Amino acid sequence: MEKHNDEQKKDNNPDEEKPGPSSENTETEEDTEDSGMEKVRKYLLQKLKINASDSESDSTTGVLKELTIDGIVDYIKQIPKCKIITMVGAGISTSAGIPDFRSPSSGLYHNLEKYNLPYPQAVFELDFFKENPEPFFTLAKQLLPEGFKPTPSHYFIRLLWEKGLLFRHYTQNIDTLERVAGLPTEKLVEAHGTFHTGHCLKCRAPYTLEWMKEKVLENIVPKCEECEEGVVKPDIVFFGEMLPDRFLYLADKDFIHADFLIIMGSSLLVQPFASLVDRVHPSCPRLLINKEKVGMQDRISRFLGLRQGLIFDAKTSHSGRDVAWLGDCDTGCQLLADKLGWGEELKELVKREHARLDAENLSAKDS
Ligand SMILES: [Zn+2]
Questions:
Q1: Fewer CB atoms < 10 Å away: N or C end of the chain?
Q2: Ligand 1 midpoint to CA 196 (Å)
Q3: Cα-based distances in Å from 29 to 36, 41, 248, 288
Q4: For bias kind Basic and acidic residues, which ranges apply (predicted)?
């Protein structure tokens, strides 16, 4: 899955030679060293065919008063109708009890031993699935979104929407909890697909989650009722499959318009999702809410001055725009909501919605 590396190589467009202060005969040893390094940097940028305008040097920073949650809250309050994009991964669903199904250590794979998989991830490979769909559905049975309730993080995102601040929500999760939390589909981009719908692999006939769930819970591999041949596969993205068109289309359009980016509960290791953080405007502040710092600029990008990755070690708010808040997503969201003055509203929303879902689950079991 998601093997596409997001290579945005630009045309070779070397900087014009401009006579700088160093052309005067007054340079110190340090200046000479700097200009030497600068030459190496420019040479490498040219060799790598990277446009100098992709580099960090022209960025506008200093938009946050301070590089803290308070600095961010000030910023959000001061921009009318602040356009916020949220990007999330499995970390926002952990407290809902959803296992990390891609990890062989999650325990989900124990039931697959009888199938003699060549390696655990084969279960999510399209070619393998076409030959042998049974192991996937055995796994799916354990993680079909049943009775899972969205977390406070999901409801925080819904609050952003209710307040008119959510520009778009990008999720790596396939657990459909954003939908359960009441986020409208037009605000939602499920980058790695979803269990919410499925399609026949042969004739592409569409199927609902309810229909697939019924078969899977009865240990039946869902077969298409239209062509009576194809297997019906949930629309989650397998290894060897393209990401959804909606993701490719909207990711290109959305990010440059964002006023603020929130990244939550993702290790930012999977491309092209991870590189979305670089698509916002150079002056757009970015907040990471996660157990640990991730997605940082690497040494080579730093040396070349490339705008790639998050930078958390800026000394002052004039030289940086990224803030990391380390901890679990629900706590981070509640803190942010408190400081925005929505703390009680968020708690109420979680309570009310969880009670509603509990009642729904109960009546579903009774019928
Ligand atoms: Zn079919």
A1: C
A2: 18
A3: 11, 18, 49, 40
A4: 1-19
CA 173 / ligand 1 centre spacing (Å): 26
Contact status, residue 54 vs residue 282, Cβ threshold 8 Å: no
Q: Which of 154, 169, 192, 196 is catalytic?
A: 192
Q: Are 240 and 1 in contact (CB under 8 A)?
A: yes
Dihedral angle computed from the Cα positions of residues 295, 296, 298 and 301, in that order, rounded to the nearest 10 degrees: 100
Known binding positions for Zn(2+): 200, 203, 224, 227
pTM of the model: 0.82
* Active-site annotation holds for 281: no
Q: Region 201-224: what's the mean pLDDT?
A: 94
In the numeric block, which tokens belong to residue 32? 């000479």
User: What's the 41 CA to ligand 1 centre distance in angstroms?
Assistant: 55
